[in-house]
Structures are given as structure tokens and as C-alpha cells.
Amino acid sequence: MAEAAKSRAEAAPALPTWPDEIYRVLKDVGIRQVAMVPDAGHSRLIRSFEADPETRVVTLTTEEEGVAMLAGAWLGGERGVLLLQSSGVGNCINMLSLPVICHMPLLMIVTMRGDWGEFNPWQIPMGQGTRPSLEAMGVIVNKVDEPDLVASTVQGAANLAFNTWKPVAVLIGQRVLGAKNFKELARK
Amino acid sequence: MSNPNALLHRRDVVNELLRDRADLLVIAGLGAPNWDVSAAGDHPNNFPLWGAMGGASMIGLGLALAQPKRKVLVITGDGEMLMNVGSLATIAVEAPKNLTIAVLDNERFGETGMQKTHTASGVDLAAIATASGIRTSRIIRTMAEVTELRDLAHEGRGTAFAQIKINPEALVFVMPPADGVILTTRFRQSLLGDEALFN
């Protein structure tokens, strides 16, 4: 019996640990405001912050609100993070002029769609446009495709943002998140 | 008795809102509200926007959450507020006690040739704010009501929203510094002290 249970446990895929690692990194850099439009890839991280009495989790109606909100947080002496999906980057473009021109730190953690193994063609334009759009606005972009490198990439991006007052985005690729396939789900 | 139907003058309104401003923190929206706030006197506790249209009220929210003991007043225009009415829903949910949003409503896009905004056709921003859950929301047409709003903003007893009907007059520009680094740094230094320069 014990052998069988052990064998099943080994066969089951391990829960990814990188959301917990990001949470620890963000706590260590002193994040107090979390602005987000929910995304499945961020759900575990969001739950961690919601359970944390030291952080304020603010649900936005559109991602550009978060860019402005975190500018206000910085003016008031608090650090924040914006959690969003690649499609939400498209909603932020003009508002990014605020942290760029004011030399304010902005840390964005972006879960990618339209990237690797995407099934939905409508996700392709913004997914493929995410990095060039951000870079066109003057945001520094770090992409990560290895689960083991997510936490260190976020750590480096956070240090860069808050030590040099720059907007920095970490793109978490679909290789890390696992590509959804609604066609398979529809057949079940 | 003055004509009760006369529209208010935008700089009278802003001068009254900022009267004896003490340590009030002020976000001024893109366009004429920026020039109005600057005409009332340049101040390190002003953060006047030269861009970022649609962002003024959310900057106010982030600031109010970061500084719960200070009072935050956002002064912006109807065009700017209409661009991001969703932020009223977000602000209503967070409900900071220390945030007041004053919309100077001339029913025009004043910077681009005075084209009519949606409020000219009856769109009621105060009703949108109320429906979003900001209970202290009103349309203001008299200076006595402006004074009440000023007191609300200084007391900070709950999130407040006002749509102030003003004359669509074009006034001389009074500009604050345009450099975002100067505006950001002097605001943070004034609010947080010299420590802000090291963080």
C-alpha cells in the first residue's frame, strides 16, 4: 500500500514553486501595493498576497489604472507591483509615459499568451507585440522561459526598478505557465 | 442675489478648494486643471500632470493608500475623468477615507478646440460615481457647495466625488515645471523628507 501511494505521488506532477518564490522576492523588496487584473498564471501569487495583512491587493478594471496607481504609491513612499497578462500590456501604453518621464520605478510581472503553444489565434497579435510595445515605450524587458529562473529574474528586475527608478517588465513565457488548450477541454 | 443659474468660474473654484491648504496633497489632471492649480500657487505638494490622460484619480488612489494619514485631493477635468470612469469603480471598492475627487466640468475638451464632451449631452459623472459605490457624490453648482467640498476634502471622512459645473472659458495658461523628475522629486522630498532622495 505504502509503495503504491509513493508511486502515485511520484507520478503526479509537482505544483510549481515559482509563484511562492516570487511572493518571497516581492516581500523582501518591500512590496505593499499589488495592482492586478486577475490571470490564471498569477492566481497562486494573488492568493498569497490576499492572505498577507501587510499588502493591499487592488483589482483594476483595466491595467492602465495600475500604472497610474503605482505612480501614486511611489509618490507616497510605498512600493508596488502590477500583475497582468500580455493582453493587458496593450491597455497600458500611453500611461507608461508617466513612470518613464518621471523616472519612477514600476515593476510589471506579465504572464504571456500568444507565445508558445498558444491555441487561440486572437491572442497572437498582442502576445507577439508585448515585448516590442513595452520596449518602444522605454520599459526594460526581461523574458523568462525556465521555471527555475523565474524568481531570480523577478529579483533582478525588482532591484533594477527600485534602485534605478525605471519601469521594468518580467515576461513569464507560456513554456513556464503551460499552454491551455480549450479545444481539448471542449471535447471532454 | 446673483443669478442662481450662472456657471462657476474654474479658478474661483480651485482657489476655494485650495484655501488654507495646509498639508493637503494635490494631483492635478492634464490640461486646464493643471493650469488652474498652478494659478492658485505653485507648491511642492502639487503633482500636476502634463500627460497620462485618464490617470489622475488612480494616482490619487495609490497616494491615498500609501499615506492614510494625509488628505489627497484630485482636481481634474470632465474629459480626463470620462477616459477612465472604470477607476471610479476601483476607487469605490478600496474606499480610502482620505481621497476626494473634484471634476471641473466645463462640458468641453478645452485643450483641443472646445469640442463637447459626453457631459454636455447629459452624462452624469456624479451618478456614475454613486452607482459605483462612492456614496458622497454630487453635482455642484454654487460656491457655497464648493466650500462644503473643500471642508470634506480637508476633513477626510470618506471617499468623496464632485462634478462641478463651470463656465467653459479659456484662460491664460499658468504652468508649473514640466520636468517630471523635478515634480516627482520635490513632491517626494516635501512629503517624505530628504530620505526620499535615497530610496
Please describe what this structure looks like.
The complex is a heterodimer of chains A (188) and B (199). Chain A is α/β, with parallel strands linked by helices. In chain A, 48% of the residues lie in helices and 18% in strands. Chain A has a single domain (30-187), classed as 3-Layer(aba) Sandwich (Rossmann fold). Chain A has ten helices and six strands. The model of chain A has no long low-confidence stretch (mean pLDDT 92). In chain B, helix 1 (10-17) crosses helix 2 (32-39). A six-stranded parallel β-sheet of chain B has the order 2-1-3-4-8-7, with helices on both faces. Chain B has a two-stranded antiparallel ribbon with strand order 5-6. In chain B, strand 1 (25-28), helix 2 (32-39) and strand 2 form a beta-alpha-beta unit. The relative contact order of chain B is 0.19. The interface between A and B is large, with 33 and 38 residues.
Short description:
The complex is a heterodimer of chains A (about 190) and B (about 200). Chain A has helices at about 1-10, 20-30, 45-50, 65-75, 85-90, 95-100, 125-135, 150-165, 175, 180-185, and strands at about 30-35, 55-60, 80-85, 105-110, 140-145, 165-170.
Largest pleated sheet of chain A: 6 strands, parallel
**Average residue-wise pLDDT of chain A:** 92
Number of DSSP helical runs of chain A: 10
CATH superfamily of chain B: Thiamin diphosphate (ThDP)-binding fold, Pyr/PP domains
| Helical residues, percent of chain B | 25-40%
CATH homologous superfamily of chain A?
Thiamin diphosphate (ThDP)-binding fold, Pyr/PP domains
**Proportion of residues in extended strands of chain A:** 15-25%
Q: Helicity range of the residues of chain A?
A: 40-55%
- What portion of residues of chain B belong to β-strands? 15-25%
Classified by CATH, the class of chain B is Alpha Beta
| Major sheet: arrangement of strands of chain A | 2-1-3-4-6-5
Mean pLDDT of chain B: 96
What is the count of distinct domains of chain B?
Answer: 1
Low-confidence stretches of chain B: none
Annotated CATH topology of chain A:
Rossmann fold
State the order of secondary-structure elements of chain A, H for helix, E for strand: HHEHEHEHHEHEHEHH
Physical arrangement of strands within the biggest beta sheet of chain B: 2-1-3-4-8-7
Q: Total strand count of chain B, please? A: 8
Number of extended strands of chain A: 6
What is the terminal separation of chain A in angstroms? 31 Å
